[in-house]
Amino acid sequence: MTEQIQCRACKKTNTYLFLPLGDHPAANAFLTPQQLKQIKQQEQQEQRWPLDTIACLDCGLVLVKDQLPADFFTEYLYVPSGSETMKRHFASFANDIRSRWITDKSDRVVDIGCNDGLLLKACNDIGVATLGIEPAANIAEMARAKGVEIFNEYFTAESAQRIRDKWGSAKVITTTNTFNHVDDLHGFMRGVVTLLADDGTFIIEVPQAITYVEMTEFDTVYHEHLSTFAVKSLADLFDFFDFTIVDIQPLPIHGGSMRVSARRTHFASKESSPAIEWIERERKAGLFDRATYDAVAKRTQKIRRDLLALLANLMGDGKKIAGYGAPAKGNTLLNYCGIGPHILSFLADRNELKHGRYSPGMHIPIVPPDRIAEEKPDYLLILAWNFADEIMEQQKAFSAAGGKFIVPIPEPRIIG
Ligand code: JHZ
User: Fold this and answer.
1) Which residue owns the Cα nearest ligand 1 atom 33?
2) Does residue 247 line the site of ligand 1, with CB under 6 A?
């Protein structure tokens, strides 16, 4: 199982294909009833691509090589606003930006991949000027409805110049959970170099490779999530552009993320960069060793075996099981484990954009959470396990009535 490809962060070719998860459809391609009918009539499956998880043994980037065709999504169904955790997270991030990096009333924060504008609305509310960059038309409209100014195109080295010509340079560029969707990281960084003010700060939030490894978060990899970053991957990438990491904050969201701030090296000191200590931690955690990834692959296979055995036992006892959450990562897990509507009668999710649709590949119906009280399943498999606490808190009535939860990651367990 070796395949040498070039790492999209450090550009080296010391890569190791350690976890082939099989052929998967696009994780966010929830099917409409018409699309599902068409697939069934033609006795076809939706389009699939190999989901091969690869590690760069030089910088610790965990990456997927195969990608969806350009412009695959004309509309995007993920919005962060359905979660109270995310609302609190972005409100606190907005305050952090204002207190640490904004020095003048005219300073502007540009958020690349601003989705429905949750972060920028929080910035606007505390008097910080903003601009959102969002190529997906449907969610760009949601951001506009919150009063956020939007540039409705992809961010590239070329569009960065047009943005700068129209709005001026950015004092802060943020990008939360977008960097991990970008194939051409070097092109993206050229855009950052063009748009960022000389004394500006570039802040990204991304899932961390170290928690991917330690918690066996195999499901967070899908064709849109092309990269899970180590601090070393970012430090190596920024080095090409003469940027230095000046701050790293670990974040609990999305199962373990980090907020990394970088500035032009002449505004920062390489010698005192927090990256040095973090990279040492990553080395100790085995992020640059083949054996670490062999162990992740083994633990992933064990999760599949244990979860399927647990669900089979419950069904054998006549228990009714449904899923809670229809996150993208849930579709990696469902397709990898082969868990379909014969096991989970529905997936309850608060995101209205997903209601009435079917999960890609496994074709489980997505319904509003009210259905839990109507159908009274005995168990809820929490696919959005990164929000398990918030979800269990909301579903107190379900547990009070005797319902139990199954959390699949880092190993399947029953709660309640
Ligand atoms: P959630 C997304 O991944 C998509 P996903 C994207 N690819 C990305 O980069 C990562 O985030 C970081 C629902 N829910 O956020 C809402 C409830 O129903 O873990 C969501 O559909 N009730 C852009 O899709 C899903 O669960 C609730 O109370 O894996 C959570 O999806 C809560 C809290 C959530 O991300």
Assistant:
1) 83
2) no
| Average model confidence (pLDDT) across the chain | 95
Rounded to whole angstroms, the Cα distance separating 130 from 298 reads 46
| 28 CA closest ligand 1 atom index | 24
- What confidence tens digit (pLDDT) does each residue in 245-269 have? 999 999 998 889 999 999 999 988 7
Distance (Å) from CA 327 to ligand 1 centroid: 5
Q: How confident is the model at residue 1 (pLDDT cuts 50, 70, 90)?
A: very low
Using alpha carbons, select from 318, 310, 329, 249 the residue that is nearest to residue 21: 329
Say whether pLDDT at 2 is over 70: no
pLDDT per position as a tens digit, 178-227? 999 999 999 999 999 999 999 999 999 999 999 999 999 999 999 999 99
